[in-house]
Amino acid sequence: MSPTAGDTAMRVQSLLDRAAKSHGTARAELAHEVREGLKADFERLQRFFGEGLDRDGAHGLAVFAAGLDGEWRVLPLSSFVPDSARVADDFLLALLVPLVGRGNGALVAVVNREQGRVLVLSDGRLDELVDRTEDAPSRHDQGGWSQARFQRHIENVAHEHYKRVAAELERVFRRLERPRIVVACSEDVRPEFAAVLQSEVADAVVGWVAVEQHAGPPELLEAVQPILEQWRAGCERELVERWREETGRKARGVAGWRETLEAASDGRVETLLYQDDANRGAFRCPSCGRASVDLETCPLDGVKTDSRDDGLDLAIRLTLAHGGDVHAVEHRRDLDPVEVIGAILRF
Q: What is the value of pTM for the model shown?
């Protein structure tokens, strides 16, 4: 988003002006009611951005408006997105896909001999879910105990504390449907805490990081984000290598727009892969929704297809509609030779 309200207003007005003159708005077949609805949507968007936008720490914003269908949704975004406005019979998704899985839902466990906090990453910030901070014994509590006996007591208290924190972490982990985890602790605490983690929780830990004892959510977020990004890059590497293997064997993999749109239309896509500059014109059947690169008549029902300028969004929608996943490839350029799009197939 722009650094000033004035910049934002000018950029939004420019986007709305372009959208108001786009093919989606000027189509001859639009009914009068639809045209009036679009006019009302544009006016509402102008009021929304013109009356002073509360950013509340957001780096971007997605606004979906369809007054005739009773839809108005404002989504603050945790990362920057390219400026875009579109008028169509469905909402634009492609720009939001790279934000999916960008750490949202990840858990951060902060552990030392006293602290035991569990936080969740949501919309670019960490929110605390659990605080099991407890007083640890100090030298003033030694009393008449021998040094060795008091040290064993300290170790036992710490061990029980780690077990309670691990139990809380497991409870949240299962309630939130097993997200990935980053543990923030010192090097001396790490082996002790790792030893009390339940095996499934331990497998979900994607990294460990050392932080200051009293680090707050902003400092914690700065420390864990590189770990989550590294984990995401690793997952992406595995996906791309699998795609290369499948396409190389001419098995469960396709490359390029023609084969990818065909596979997405057939419901065969397990994971759609594309790079940030992917898009092209395409055709979609208004009856069955099938998409193709150049077929002006649907091969299934003979209906004349609609020309679209958002082939990527068509591929994404078809993939999601049939239960597939979508991944925007950001760390590699393996798709460059194949029109920057491809897919891993179910069959």
A: 0.82
